[in-house]
Amino acid sequence: MSASASITVTDIDRLLPQTQCGKCGHPGCRPYAEAIAEGEAINRCPPGGEATVVQLAELMDRPAVPLEVDAESPKAAVIREAECIGCTKCIQACPVDAILGASKQMHTVIEAECTGCELCVAPCPVDCIDIVAHPGWQAASTEREQNDWLARRAELGRRRFENRNARLERQREEKDARRRERMRARQQQRSETKAPGEHVPSTATPATSKPAGNLRARKAAISATVRRLEKRLSTAPDNQADQSALEHARQQLADLQAQSEADTRTDDNKQAIPASSTLNSLRIARSAARQRLALANRQLAHARRQGGPEDIATAQALVERAENTWQDACRALDNAERH
């Protein structure tokens, strides 16, 4: 048996910096360690730098290849508290629960527990988070002090990451249990109130209610997909697969909106009812387009501050697409209001 065959994921994970930043392409250091154990490259950790590559190479008996991207020194997030609106998006994004705050209340970063992962920056709707050199790292004046500080940060980051994941899993299980309990209660209530053989008439119009309900359900599902993809692209804007999926989902949503408008116009011709729902839908679409444009502009501003030419070009392309979507939404609403 080779030496590498006896190496565990824990052995590999112990050498990683535990920033949980995802810059290696995995959602945390432990998943990256699992991928390395399966044969993935060992040079994809910018926070770990060349030192981590050398340690992994020795452990795995592989060549110490150069980093895929430039190494990064330890960082920390700082919230400009006077500008914070208390949206909690940074709290939700932090992989180590290092941000304190509540809805509509000022947030603050726990400096000693921040790993500098930068995952809180993109979700912030007012761009009030800065990434700075970690004060704890700057205070370490000797190589030994630096190594001790890195070891403490790694241990704390690993523990808080695991605790957060356990908490989220527990909350998901509790939510699922509550949903199952509600479903059982509804089923029991229906069985108790409905007599044997009794037929409960439908109050909906057979010819129109089911298609309308299906259309609304499809729109809701696709809208959820769009929001999920936009959130993922806010942290990884150069993901081509997600960009293509987002464009496809938006096109599906536009097609469903057109179908909904056609159905509304048909109902108007038959019943002479004003198309207020169509106008509301178009206003919602315009509002969503405006939000996407604002998000794209924030990503561009972030790329200009901290990214390279490729990051800026990608962000500019996102802004152009968002601008076109915004203009289309405005024109559609203007046309509908004139008619």
Short description:
This protein is mainly alpha-helical and 339 residues long. The chain has helices at residues 9-13, 29-37, 49-60, 89-93, 135-139, 143-193, 209-235, 240-271, 276-306, 309-338; strands spanning 75-79, 99-100, 108-109, 129-133.
Structure in words:
The longest helix has 51 residues, at 143-193. The protein is mostly helical and 339 residues long. The protein folds into three domains: 4-60, Electron transport complex subunit B, putative Fe-S cluster (3-methyladenine DNA Glycosylase II, Chain A, domain 3); 73-183, Alpha-Beta Plaits (2-Layer Sandwich), CATH 3.30.70; 209-265 and 274-338, no CATH class. The protein is globular and about 75 Å long. It contains ten helices and four strands. It has helices at residues 9-13, 29-37, 49-60, 89-93, 135-139, 143-193, 209-235, 240-271, 276-306, 309-338; strands at 75-79, 99-100, 108-109, 129-133. The termini are far apart. α7 (209-235) runs antiparallel to α8 and α9 runs antiparallel to α10. The strands form two sheets. The protein has a two-stranded antiparallel sheet. A two-stranded antiparallel ribbon has the order 2-3. Mean pLDDT is 84; it is low at 200-209. Keywords: 4Fe-4S, Cell inner membrane, Cell membrane, Electron transport, Iron, Iron-sulfur, Membrane, Metal-binding, Repeat, Translocase, Transport. GO terms for molecular function: 4 iron, 4 sulfur cluster binding; electron transfer activity; metal ion binding. Residues 169-179 have a biased composition (Basic and acidic residues). Residues 169-215, 229-275 are annotated as: Disordered. It holds the Pfam family FeS.
